[in-house]
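Long-time lurker. I teach an intro course on protein structure, and each term I like to show students one example going from raw sequence to a predicted 3D structure in token notation. This year I'd like something fresh instead of my usual example. Would anyone be willing to generate the tokens for the chain below so I can use it in lecture? Attribution to the forum is fine with me.
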Amino acid sequence: MILLTLLLALVQDRQVLAQDEGYDVFVPISKYIGKGDATRLSAWFADNLEITVISSTNNCSKNQARQITKTFFDNYTPRSFAITHKASRANMKYALGALNAGGEVFMVTLFVNYKDGGYQIQQLKIERQTSVY
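-- Reply from a regular --
Happy to contribute to a lecture. Here you go:
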């Protein structure tokens, strides 16, 4: 009976692990970037993070980063956002995306880290897309 209980617990743990491996943290983050929702996006911010918006880089608190992204979204209203590349390593995930906002295209870089039972954005960069001819 104890062996059966242990076997069932192991199977359940593997099912939970499989669900976690299939989870894409960038789905909700992308939705909030695409909508220009700085408040909901900031719920994913680490307590302290690095944020770069159009050549201005800051190491700041979650609240400061929320205000910076809100100001950006107020000045450049998002029309669409799509992830173009993703990669991961250990507890870190990385994504690149294209943001169409305010009549311009921006390259967005996201680094998220798994900490304290959830993913948190450690670094966010929003930079103007430059054309290469």
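Some talking points for your students: The first strand starts at residue 45 and ends at 53. Helices lie at 2-22, 26-35, 38-42, 62-75.
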